[in-house]
């Protein structure tokens, strides 16, 4: 048996065992949750054969579907507004120097830094005091969208700024020398160069919104429930495979969005 | 890159600064200011409150019962951070030493749970921890193997008794670790990836043992990652409420649970507001400590990693 190279910690059996155990523990609960969404038993403790009936049941559950539609609507609206605000924030911090820049950067980081629950109660207070309730769909979702944009756009700004940092302004300046206006130069020259990070940022904003529970929990009204909030109330009511089915769908959407975001970011670094 | 002075192009400057700063002012600063003001109010009637500008809510927050919850929250978050570090450090190290193809796959495998809804991951743990859950099944399996081996030697042991995990502090702490561990691994990995492994080779070549190399070379040089990872786990874990709610017992209350109940159950906004500001100050204290320690560790390290 050959001894592993001096530094090849990854090749040592105990390191491999540790790593395998870690990933087993990390994934086992999620995999079991997904498997039991197909379990043909009301109480999901013992396996009683495969069935898709809990997906059918979830599909027929109007309040669940409504929550799902709400979640997607909010996530898409949040993605559009959050990406817009995030991109201009990145451009602002990349391109300009201005008084109190450090302080502005600090304030922009606050929504990421403060505990989610503090942000949640701030939203609860704000929308209770100064926001009309009893609005019709989709206007009743606007407060959740606003809350989501507030904590997602700083994330988009961080991602876009990462790509801007490695960018040279000479193309943009050349375009302006050749007669393009500031706007044309920004839209036709600057934005295409940072397109990968904008798309990745948008997907991250989409995911953050889709899977947020804490802030939405404090912002959602009785008729503006999102999927995580709905899952929360289902979990408290009873633990059935229907909850697992709803969770599985949310997990799959999240993984696809994150995978896409990572692929696009990787293309950015390779290209 | 050379930055523009904002005066040189005011139109563009305002276009890329006014929208989001206005947004942040209206939908973030004002709500927080409102919570701040409410924390100096007094509860009136069922849901009302009136501004009285006194410290009553803060004084109530340092009563022994709430002080002990604050202490418990700090203790839990510290325990969670330490466990995450002890588990996450070897994992990050192993990933950074893995061959390239495996590295990307493992990194993605760490990242995925990071994105999956924390509530769902907590819910998934219920099936693990409950009386007839995966953990008890696994322990029973090991027990039965052990029992049959012992029976072979003629020693009788009784049948396996299910242990209570769900609704205990252990389950709550394990749940928080489970949800936050990816936050620890990613910053650790980021530092280890940039770390020049020839330092390790040099130390080993010059006769230092593996342990000595670890404590005198690897650990000091990866300290920035350790500090970042700890702060990224510690700060958000201070505010968790649904994990302790779903997995913990009646004595697993954390400060987040109390805040949630003041706002959504007891309808005592002023007290809840005071508690959330105290939680925020605690967060800021942790962040200030972080920046001080971070500066120091960079000075001591001397080597740019």
Describe this structure in words.
The complex is a heterodimer of chains A (271) and B (305). By secondary structure, chain A is mainly α. Chain A has helices at residues 13-36, 53-60, 62-95, 101-113, 116-130, 142-164, 170-177, 182-193, 195-211, 214-219, 227-237, 241-270, and one strand spanning 96-97. In chain A, helix 2 (53-60) crosses helix 12 (241-270) and helix 3 (62-95) runs parallel beside helix 6. In chain A, 45% of the residues are buried. The mean pLDDT of chain A is 87. Chain B has a domain at 64-130 and 165-301: MetI-like (MetI-like fold, Orthogonal Bundle). Chain B has 14 helices and 3 strands. In chain B, helix 6 packs across helix 8 (169-194), helix 9 packs antiparallel against helix 10 (210-221) and helix 11 (223-238) packs antiparallel against helix 14. The longest helix of chain B has 34 residues, at 64-97. Chain B is globular. The mean pLDDT of chain B is 88. The chains are: A mainly alpha (271), B mainly alpha (305). Chains A and B meet through helix 1, helix 3, strand 1, helix 4 and helix 5 of A and strand 1, helix 1, helix 2, helix 4 and helix 5 of B. Strand 1 of chain A pairs parallel with strand 1 of chain B, so a sheet runs across the interface.
């Amino acid at each position: 048996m050959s001894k592993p190279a001096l530094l090849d910690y990854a090749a040592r059996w105990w390191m491999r065992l540790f790593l395998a155990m870690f990933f087993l523990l990390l994934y086992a609960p999620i995999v079991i949750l997904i498997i039991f969404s197909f379990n043909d038993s009301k109480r999901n403790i013992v396996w009683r054969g495969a069935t898709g009936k809990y997906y059918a049941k979830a599909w027929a559950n109007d309040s669940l579907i409504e929550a799902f539609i709400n979640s997607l609507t909010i996530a898409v609206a949040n993605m559009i507004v959050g990406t817009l605000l995030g991109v201009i924030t990145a451009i602002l911090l990349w391109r300009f120097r201005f008084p109190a820049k450090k302080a502005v950067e600090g304030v922009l980081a606050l929504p990421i830094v403060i505990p989610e629950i503090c942000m949640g109660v701030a939203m609860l207070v704000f929308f209770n005091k100064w926001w009309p309730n009893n609005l019709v769909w989709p206007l009743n979702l606007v407060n959740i969208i606003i809350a989501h944009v507030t904590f997602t756009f700083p994330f988009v700004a961080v991602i876009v700024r990462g790509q801007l940092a490695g960018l040279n302004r000479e193309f943009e300046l050349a375009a302006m020398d050749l007669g393009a206006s500031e706007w044309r130069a920004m839209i036709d020259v600057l934005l295409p160069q940072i397109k990968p990070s904008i798309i990745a940022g948008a997907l991250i904003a989409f995911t953050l919104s889709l899977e947020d529970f804490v802030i939405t929990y404090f912002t959602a009204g009785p008729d503006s429930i999102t999927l995580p909030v709905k899952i929360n109330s289902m979990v408290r009511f009873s633990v059935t495979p229907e909850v697992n089915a709803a969770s599985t769908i949310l997990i799959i959407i999240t993984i696809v969005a994150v995978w896409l975001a990572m692929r696009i970011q990787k293309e950015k670094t390779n290209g | 890159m050379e930055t523009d002075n904002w005066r040189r192009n005011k139109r563009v400057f305002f276009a890329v600064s006014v929208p989001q700063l206005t947004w942040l002012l209206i939908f973030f600063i004002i709500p927080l200011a409102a919570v701040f003001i409410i924390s100096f109010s007094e509860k009136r009637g069922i849901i009302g409150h009136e501004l009285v500008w006194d410290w009553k809510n803060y004084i109530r927050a340092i009563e022994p019962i709430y002080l002990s919850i604050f202490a418990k929250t700090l203790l839990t978050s510290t325990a969670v951070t330490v466990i995450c570090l002890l588990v996450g450090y070897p994992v990050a190290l192993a990933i950074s030493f893995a061959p390239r193809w495996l590295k990307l796959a493992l990194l993605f495998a760490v990242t995925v749970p990071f994105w999956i809804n924390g509530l769902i991951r907590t819910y998934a743990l219920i099936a693990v921890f409950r009386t007839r859950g995966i953990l008890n099944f696994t322990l029973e399996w090991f027990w039965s193997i052990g029992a049959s081996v012992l029976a072979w030697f003629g020693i009788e042991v009784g049948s396996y008794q299910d242990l209570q995990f769900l609704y205990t502090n252990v389950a709550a702490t394990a749940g928080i670790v489970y949800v936050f561990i990816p936050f620890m691994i990613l910053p650790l990995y980021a530092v280890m990836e940039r770390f020049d492994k020839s330092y390790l080779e040099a130390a080993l070549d010059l006769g230092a043992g593996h342990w000595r190399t670890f404590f005198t070379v690897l650990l000091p040089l990866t300290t920035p990652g350790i500090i970042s990872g700890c702060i990224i786990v510690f700060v958000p874990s201070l505010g968790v409420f649904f994990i302790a709610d779903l997995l913990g017992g009646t004595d697993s209350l954390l400060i987040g649970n109390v805040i949630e109940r003041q706002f959504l159950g007891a309808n005592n906004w002023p007290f809840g507001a005071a508690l959330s500001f105290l939680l925020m100050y605690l967060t800021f204290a942790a962040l200030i400590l972080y920046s001080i320690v971070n500066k120091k560790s960079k000075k001591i390290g001397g080597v740019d990693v």
